[in-house]
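ok trying this again, last paste got cut off
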Amino acid sequence: MLRWLSGEGSCKNGTCPTLWGTEDGHYVVQGYGITDPARLAELNLSVGETAVEIPAEVLESYFRTRLEAYLSAQG
């Protein structure tokens, strides 16, 4: 089961960039597929891999929240 971690929580059409967590400790990134051939060539993806682009704010928000929780737990 996926759990929402960061991104536009009020997204109505399902196309909003989002960071999800899995039950086995992995992340799933929902974003816009990269289709620019030059960018894809730079990535040198293996068979079965794909790349998506998300706004920096999605990850920054997640890690900011994690840092705040950590600092709060430290007292």
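PB: full thing came through this time. The chain has a mean pLDDT of 92.
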